[in-house]
Amino acid sequence: MSFFNGLEIASTALFAQRQRMNVISSNLANAQTTRTEDGTYYKRKDLVFRPQTIHEEARGKIFPSSFDEAWKKKIEGVQVEAIIEDDKPPILKYDPGHPDADEEGYVAYPNISIVEEMTDMITASRAYEANTAIIETIKKMANEAVGLGRV
Predict the structure, then answer these.
(1) Residue 69: count of CB within 10 angstroms of its CB
(2) Residue 151's CB: how many other CB atoms inside 10 A?
(3) Global pTM?
(4) What is the largest CA-CA distance in the chain?
(5) Cβ 7 vs Cβ 142: under 8 Å
(6) Per-residue pLDDT for 58 more than 60?
(7) Number of CB atoms found within 10 A of residue 127's CB
(8) Is 11 helix (H, G, I), strand (E, B) or coil?
(9) How far apart are CA 69 and CA 151, in angstroms?
(10) Fewer CB near the last or first residue (10 Å), C or N of the chain?
C-alpha cells in the first residue's frame, strides 16, 4: 500500500461524511416542515454506505499477483450508495387552525428526533476529524521519508 492509497481511502471517507452532514442538516432544517412540493410532510433522509475498492487496476503493479486476494478486501474506502427516506409514520399534532391540518384537525409533522440528529452530526464530525488526522499523518510520513534521502 502506498501513501496515495491511504490518502485515497481517507478522502473517500471525508466525502462520505460531508454528504452525511448535508443530509443531517437537511433533516434538522425540515424538522417542522408540514408541506413539501408534493403536498406531504417532509420525510427524514438517511445514507446507505458501501465499501469502495481503491486502485483495483494498480494493485497488480504494486504487489505480486499472489497477494491480490489478501489485499483485495483491505484496500477499500467508503462510498455513498443511496440516500433513502425513512418510513416512520409522521407525528400527528392536534392544531385545527393550521393550514395543513386534516379534516379532523391533525397536522402531520416529520418524525425527526433532534437529539438523534445532533448525535449523528457529532459522530459524522468526529469521523471527519479522524480522517483529516489520517491525512495529516500520511503527509508527515511522506515528508519524513523524503527527508531521509536528503544529506
Answers:
(1) 8
(2) 2
(3) 0.80
(4) 83
(5) no
(6) no
(7) 17
(8) helix
(9) 39
(10) C
- Greater pLDDT, 50 or 76: 50
Residues found in the chain: 151
81-131 per-position pLDDT tens digit: 999 999 999 999 999 999 999 999 999 999 999 999 999 999 999 999 999
Q: Which residue from 22, 6, 130 is spatially nearest to 77, judged by alpha carbons?
A: 6
2 vs 63: CA distance, rounded Å: 11
126: nearest Cα among 11, 8, 16, 17 = 17
Q: How far apart are CA 146 and CA 73, in angstroms?
A: 29
Secondary structure of residue 77 in the 3-state scheme: strand
Nine-digit cell string for 144? 519524513
What is the pLDDT confidence band of residue 4, given thresholds at 50, 70 and 90?
confident
Q: Which residue blocks in the chain are alpha helix, DSSP H?
A: 3-29, 59-62, 68-72, 114-148
pLDDT score recorded for residue 56: 55
The grid cell for 108 is 402531520
